[in-house]
Amino acid sequence: QGQEANASEQDDPNSIGMALERSNLDLNPFKQKGGLLGSNFNLKSFVEGVDKVATGLDGIGVGFEIEGDVHSAYLFGQGYRSGVASNYQLVGRNLKLFGGQSMTALSKPASWLTGFGSGISYGATFLSMGVLTYEGVQVWNGRADRTRFGYHMGTFGLSAGLAFYMVGQLVLQ
Predict the structure, then answer these.
(1) Quick one: the chain helix, strand, coil %, rounded to 5?
(2) Which of 21, 109, 147, 155 is 20 to 30 A removed from 170 (C-alpha atoms)?
(3) Distance separating alpha carbons of residues 64 and 33, to the nearest angstrom
(4) Three-state DSSP class for 99?
(5) Per residue in 162-173, pLDDT tens?
């Protein structure tokens, strides 16, 4: 008799459960209309978009860094050298004596393009770390593929490792 009462309550169009179903009320704050992030917010799609933006920004940053190196080589050819506070230009006797020397990491003039590109790349790395954190949580909860996460961790680790290696080579010169 207890089951019959429960069944009749569930089928009753005036019950609270049926009223909630009819209203399509979703108590998730990320999905509520006019809620925290709007009615059509999808976290997975958002994270995938951030991942694509990070990849694009990293490519743009590397492009600026390469252009900065080209600009530095041009400045070096014009007689500019790296100083303590800023670049300086060789003139007169110093240009004749030192103008023909090859560029080293210490004499290479600084270019704003290189710094700008590095900043963009750092921002992309920060975004990538956020995506990796999200994917790690999803793998931990059993909602994501471990192979994809492993691939992303591997590529991130390789990029970070190469960056540390390159910075180390510059410091040792």
Answers:
(1) 65, 5, 30
(2) 155
(3) 42
(4) coil
(5) 777 777 766 665
**Strand residues in the chain grouped as ranges (E):** 80-82, 87-89
Give dist(CA 10, CA 7) in Å, integer: 5
Of 145, 129, 119, nearest in space to 50 by CA:
129
The sign of the dihedral angle between the CA atoms of 71, 77, 79, 82 is positive
Beta carbons of 115 and 106 less than 8 angstroms apart: no
Question: Phi-psi region for residue 158, left (φ > 0), alpha (ψ -120 to 50) or beta?
Answer: alpha
Residue 142 DSSP symbol: T
Cβ-contact 44, 104 below 8 angstroms: no
How many Cα neighbours within 13 Å face the side chain of 166? 6
For 43, other C-beta atoms within 10 Å of its C-beta total 11
Determine if residue 38 is left, alpha or beta; phi over 0 gives left, psi from -120 to 50 gives alpha, anything else beta. Answer: left
Global pTM value: 0.61
| pLDDT tens, position by position, 62-100 | 899 899 999 999 999 888 888 888 888 888 888 888 878
Q: Which one, of 104, 106, 114, lies nearest residue 67 by Cα?
A: 114
Integer CA distances (angstroms), 51 to 46, 107, 134, in order: 9, 37, 11
Closest to 82 measured CA to CA, from 67, 103, 96? 103
